[in-house]
Amino acid sequence: MSDIDDWGTDDVEAEQTEASTPSLYFGSVDEFVREYLRNVYRRRIDGRHRCWAGRWWEHDEGIIRLEALWRAWEHLRLDPATGMSVWWRDHADPHMAALMDPDGPFATATEGEENTCRKGDPLPYVAPPAGMFPDVR
Questions:
Q1: How far is the CA of 91 from the CAs of 24, 41, 58, 94, 136, in angstroms?
Q2: In a domain, 14, yes or no
């Protein structure tokens, strides 16, 4: 049996926690890749020196690494001092190097417009099947 003084405090605490938790900027890893990452991480992708799969969502390691990048970005974007520097140094550069490695998870995606791009162009992108990455905001 609960004490009368404690009645209703769980609901108030839950509301305060929800109110203090910042909302996500991007609603899914797909939105993060489509709207942000592919546009800021511009590299020449030729399938020999660097690989990238426009259908990144067909590669389990690609999904996991990109999800980790997105979640780290969402957390570190809230640090106005060094958050983005930490994200680039500790997250983006190591994960992207692993993803783009010719022996990495996208090693079989080496040809065609959906897997290659010129220096300065956004990374290739093919939309995943509808509903694969629902918005979680």
A1: 18, 13, 22, 6, 22
A2: no
Q: What domain count does the chain have?
A: 1
Question: 68 is in which domain, residue-wise?
Answer: 25-127
What count of Cα atoms within 13 Å lies in the side-chain half-sphere of residue 6? 4
- Is residue 97 classed as helix, strand or coil in its secondary structure? helix
Residue 6 lies in a domain: no
In a domain, 114, yes or no: yes
pTM, 2 dp:
0.84
CA 105/CA 82 separation, integer angstroms:
30
Q: pLDDT tens digits for the chain (137 residues)? A: 445 555 555 555 555 555 567 899 999 999 999 999 999 999 999 999 999 999 999 999 999 999 999 999 999 999 999 999 999 999 999 999 999 999 999 999 999 999 999 999 999 999 999 999 999 99
Residue 37 is assigned to a structural domain of this protein: yes
